[in-house]
Amino acid sequence: MSTYGPQIEVAIARVRADVARLHSELTRYGLVVSTGGNVSGRVPGADLFVIKPSGVDYADLAPENMILCGLDGVVIPDTPGAERSPSSDTAAHAYVYRNMADVGGVVHTHSTYATAWAARGESIPCVITAMADEFGGDIPVGPFAIIGDDSIGRGIVGILTGHRSRAVLMQNHGPFTIGKDARDAVKAAVMVEDVARTVHIARQAGELIPLPQAAIDTLFDRYQNVYGQAPQGAIL
Amino acid sequence: MSTYGPQIEVAIARVRADVARLHSELTRYGLVVSTGGNVSGRVPGADLFVIKPSGVDYADLAPENMILCGLDGVVIPDTPGAERSPSSDTAAHAYVYRNMADVGGVVHTHSTYATAWAARGESIPCVITAMADEFGGDIPVGPFAIIGDDSIGRGIVGILTGHRSRAVLMQNHGPFTIGKDARDAVKAAVMVEDVARTVHIARQAGELIPLPQAAIDTLFDRYQNVYGQAPQGAIL
Amino acid sequence: MSTYGPQIEVAIARVRADVARLHSELTRYGLVVSTGGNVSGRVPGADLFVIKPSGVDYADLAPENMILCGLDGVVIPDTPGAERSPSSDTAAHAYVYRNMADVGGVVHTHSTYATAWAARGESIPCVITAMADEFGGDIPVGPFAIIGDDSIGRGIVGILTGHRSRAVLMQNHGPFTIGKDARDAVKAAVMVEDVARTVHIARQAGELIPLPQAAIDTLFDRYQNVYGQAPQGAIL
Amino acid sequence: MSTYGPQIEVAIARVRADVARLHSELTRYGLVVSTGGNVSGRVPGADLFVIKPSGVDYADLAPENMILCGLDGVVIPDTPGAERSPSSDTAAHAYVYRNMADVGGVVHTHSTYATAWAARGESIPCVITAMADEFGGDIPVGPFAIIGDDSIGRGIVGILTGHRSRAVLMQNHGPFTIGKDARDAVKAAVMVEDVARTVHIARQAGELIPLPQAAIDTLFDRYQNVYGQAPQGAIL
User: Where is the Class II aldolase/adducin N-terminal domain positioned along the sequence (chains A, B, C, D) (predicted)?
Assistant: First the structure.
């Protein structure tokens, strides 16, 4: 009954498991409430991605109810979970996968501090080393876009293509993050809220000291190439 | 010993279980401390609702100590839990059920950010898409009313009748939310605190960008009719 | 080997168990970090109270390492836990028990928002109904006092004697709360942080609406006499 | 196969276990997100210390994957964990151990409020007794320094040598704390975030009342010499 051959089926199973499990990182860090937020992951070697069903409780997410979609955002029929509707942000995820070949994961939340910057349409200035490490500079704002067609996807791709940042704050909406895989995009979602909160609080009490551009460049380069247990290429 | 016939008794048992369990959502999201806050649910097909006992620890709530009341707010004698006093907000819940036929659940908390807006008597402006989705516009303020008679209930009903919002901030007091059932009212209680916090934090740091009314209308309509796994009618 | 007769020994055992267990409420609500904070409880029918040892991890607290003291604050020798030093705030607790006969429990924390009001030496204005219910008005500030002699105890007793509030914010230090027993004092510690946080956040964003004194009186009276499962007398 | 003799090997095993376990205090208090932050501990009686591997999940930390380093910051080959890279802050930890003989533990985090003060390059004024107890005065700011050479270590040592405070806020970066052992440095990391948060919130709402220097001196002296279950010498 496999449509895709054994190798791709193995990859699909692994991405289903990863995407289901990674949603628990969003609740662990308080980035989502109720049924909000979503994680997706591209299936390596196929024009497919796996995404959360719409409006389902986080406690009920499991590999077999994640939903397999084509890069057009259409659910693949007769696959596990296909009887349900995918996340209402599926079109935006699909647009990113179609237009950014190196992106293997996408995450969307309404996390408090990142959404607060988005409600003012204000980018987050890079004033702490953790932000230089992870995002390589300011975190940009994307256009206001209504859900339901390609306009959110176009906004994300327009801002993040060629940008160091893996996060964009969609105006009046909230953060979208990308990564080389779903885990990497979740890390970016965790970090964007962390730096959004720290910089908000810092600025409440006075003037921020800017980071010199040369220091930002050095920190970003080191983190992308030296940090962790194996060299990680920047995804863009 | 059943007073209501087997069908209604089954419905009562289900609402008791739902209401007892849903209180854990209030503690999970930090919406209540100590014994504060309360959830109630209407029994479908009967002039009855189920509510939390007064001043009992959240850890001790169970289906059999939830309290069954008539729509006049009087405890039904000789039913499980009837030896205890019901929530001190019972009169307000009863007033809502008597006057809003489509409401199946009511929740009250003193959650931090929603209560902060209430202490200023200020409605929450609709500046983020999550708020347009869930509440369809600003979250309104209700009058200051003393507990113990119908004045809180009258305030809630007066504000929410014909309003898109399922939440009202009772002045100097805190949020009350309604829903098609207890689960839906709990979701509104979780969401009102989430948006109260995000908009508070956003506004601390500068000007908010308004959402165009047409966008609010589109988002609210889509969310009420398309989001989730089956169409959900707006309750009002 | 019982010094106090079987009835008092039973009371001591119960207070040891209560005081040990109640410390977990302080960590559950995030009112303490590391080894900070302390709960004590009077032994009914005896000139004794039970208090936490000094500088011991919360995870290691148990009935048998709670420390039994006389009302002079001196550890009762040859009792379980007596080989350890009692909380460094023991003198303050003892002073309260000696001078306020109706007090059966005392709690001290450095909880964030209550301590923030204390660092400004500012009382918390009564602008929300939860505060009128629980404290009957503003939460007062006590004098700055150095730890180690009776000056903290004198400050607490001087402020709280004849006051509706069961909480006092000791200037530059943090909240002390009292109650009819340890559980009641812990509830006051939880509530003082909750209202300190809500009123702080409310005031950050604009003018607060005062509560009329008559409404405060009505709310306090009802809460002390009607709320919960049995009438509770005010402790003072 | 023991290189160091049985006594030192026992000490290494104990420090590995302590350092691995103490990382859970950082997550418990929300001082770190993702793989950020690090704890190290000196091996008593040897020119060695144990530190966290780089970029590894907190859930995967265990005694056997902690990394043993010489005081030059170089990993000791053929020891458990040596196949991995140590924390990218290893050079800074090593510099502290080489230059501050009494320091037995070092911790680094990007905890929110402490990092917010660091982003403004502002020291935390000593206005609450908990801060006088634990740090003996203001918490100082260290210079901006780029990761990867000795400049962070030099900055920490330059500020903390001869200083009462066990915490320094490295500008635009975050807090580093020291202690007589890893546990003590972790306590300082927990406390610096706690006081950074409390003093930030206090100052948002008005003027802070200064603590008299004589009171600070008395509190610090008592806490270092009387608090807890056995006299603790100040580490510096």
Answer: 17-200
Q: Count CB neighbours of D5 within 10 A.
A: 11
Q: B199: distance to nearest CA of chain C, Å? A: 11
Q: Contact C174/C120 with Cβ under 8 angstroms?
A: no
Please tell me what DSSP assigns to residue B108. Answer: E
- Give the C-alpha separation, D169 to A234, whole Å: 30
Q: What are phi and psi of D61, to 5 degrees?
A: -80, 135
> E strands along B55-170, which residues?
67-70, 105-108, 141-142, 167-170
CATH code of D6-225, in short, is: 3.40.225.10
CB D200 within 8 A of CB A198: no
What is the DSSP code string of A87-132?
-TTHHHHHHHHHH-TT--EEEE---HHHHHHHHHT-PBP--SHHHH
> What DSSP line would sit under D96-161, residue for residue?
HHHH-TT--EEEE---HHHHHHHHHT-PBP--SHHHHHHHSSPBPEEPP--TTSTHHHHHHHHHHT
Whether the CB-CB separation of B177 and B188 falls below 8 Å is answered with: yes
Q: Are C175 and C167 in contact (CB under 8 A)?
A: yes
CB A84 within 8 A of CB A46: no
Q: Nearest-CA neighbor of D152 among D87, D236, D68? A: D87
- Give the C-alpha separation, B89 to C227, whole Å: 10
DSSP state of D75: B
D26, D27, D31, D33: which to substitute to probe chain A, counting the most A Cβ within 10 Å?
D33
Contact A128 D115 (CB under 8 A): yes
* Rounded-to-integer distance, Cα C188 and Cα A214, Å: 53
Q: What is the pLDDT along chain B (236 residues), one digit of tens a residue?
A: 457 899 999 999 999 999 999 999 999 999 999 999 999 999 999 999 999 999 899 999 999 999 999 999 999 999 999 999 999 999 999 999 999 999 999 999 999 999 999 999 999 999 999 999 999 999 999 999 977 679 999 999 999 999 999 999 999 999 999 999 999 999 999 999 999 999 999 999 999 999 999 999 999 998 887 666 654 433 33
Shortest CA gap D228–chain C (Å): 4
DSSP string covering D203-227:
HHTSPPPPPPHHHHHHHHHHHHHTS
Distance CA A141, CA B190 (A): 27
Residues D30, A125, D160: CA angle, nearest 5 degrees:
55
Interface probe with C: pick from D128, D222, D225, most Cβ of C within 10 Å: D128
CA-CA distance, D57 to A18, in Å (whole number)?
Answer: 15
Q: Say if residues B136 and B191 touch (Cβ distance below 8 Å).
A: no
* Chain B hits for A171, Cβ within 8 Å: 209
Shortest distance, CA C115 to any CA of chain B (angstroms):
17
**CA neighbours closer than 13 Å in the CB half-sphere of residue A19:** 31
Query: Helix or strand or coil: residue D229?
Result: coil
Question: pLDDT per residue over D118-134, tens digit each?
Answer: 999 999 999 999 999 99
Residue A226: strand, helix, or coil: coil
Cα→Cα distances D5→D2, D14, D49, Å: 6, 15, 16
DSSP code, position D186 = H
CB C17 within 8 A of CB C39: no
* pTM of the predicted model over 0.80: yes
